[in-house]
């Protein structure tokens, strides 16, 4: 019998995202992987989403892309309720929307599996605790497992490795790739590039305007520091593959980093602060360097640019391919369904 899955995506951005939207990117990659394996998936996402699954929508566009659209909370409540009102049509609901859908989960007999994409605040943990025994949780890294919660599995995100071919680092620049926010280390990347005398390319949405104006914009001169803005799928691999190294000098316990894995798939080594999931993603001395501060990051540049880029890509393809992620989730689905059979 064909497995019927309702895939509940966020509605901040389209699935897949045009530029930024890591949760939406995850949903797209997994949905397409499941469909390719014969799973009957209904994707609950914005109406402009692109998918080979069945598409169900209550929102025309993502609220981050539609400033004239409806109130965010109203749009999200209508979106989530649409899934649970059809719960009887599915064998399993896969929640990739954060904690709100859990409050519906005990009202339907259909099992709900939730991918926890990190905790935006300790304040949301009680919701996960309330539904801990009733639901099923997947962590996206061991580092992000909460000690008071139980998990079906840890499943690292996968990527379409074919979309990230081997690059040669021919651009001769260091790269910052992520949202412009203090958490992501944009200012630290600028300082490392200055210390080692290499140009820095920066790509990503501006999420903190004040931080951008104070810490980034004064350094952007189009030569030593270039800011490209958001970079979509059409340019992503070229920007990542052309870099000598990716600087991922995060200021928080990041649960995962898509740009880290994508860079390595292009053969580009990563210099990251040893925080959050980075020790699970970056193999120190092989695919880059794990450091504790700006001084350590600057000191690591000469050694990582000499890493074997083909070997970096080979390991990334083996560890972070979409097929591996899809297989992991299918195993988690079967485990959850086995509990209720």
- Roughly what is the average pLDDT, rounded to an integer? 96
What is the string of helix and strand elements? EHEEHEHEHEEEHEHEHEHEHEHHH
Proportion of residues in β-strands = 15-25%
Rg from alpha-carbon coordinates: 20 Å
In CATH terms, the superfamily of the largest domain is Glycogen Phosphorylase B
Please tell me what the overall shape is.
globular
Number of strands: 13
Residue stretches low in confidence (pLDDT < 50, at least 5 long) are: none
User: What fold name goes in the CATH topology slot of the largest domain?
Assistant: Rossmann fold
Annotated CATH architecture of the largest domain: 3-Layer(aba) Sandwich
* Percentage of residues assigned to helices: 25-40%
| Largest pleated sheet | 7 strands, parallel
The CATH C-level class name of the largest domain: Alpha Beta
Number of domains: 2
Distance between the termini: 14 Å
Q: How many helices in DSSP terms?
A: 12
What does this entry look like structurally?
This protein is an alpha/beta fold. It has helices at 22-36, 72-84, 102-105, 125-130, 186-196, 209-216, 233-241, 258-265, 278-281, 294-304, 309-320, 322-340, and strands at residues 4-8, 40-44, 54-56, 92-95, 112-116, 136-139, 153-154, 173-177, 200-203, 225-227, 243-248, 270-273, 288-291. It has two domains: 4-158 and 321-340, Glycogen Phosphorylase B (Rossmann fold); 161-319, Rossmann fold. The strands form two sheets. Strands 3-2-1-4-5-6-7 form a seven-stranded parallel sheet, with helices on both faces. Strands 10-9-8-11-12-13 form a six-stranded parallel sheet, sandwiched between helices. α8 links the parallel β11 (243-248) and β12 (270-273). The protein is globular. The two termini are 14 Å apart.
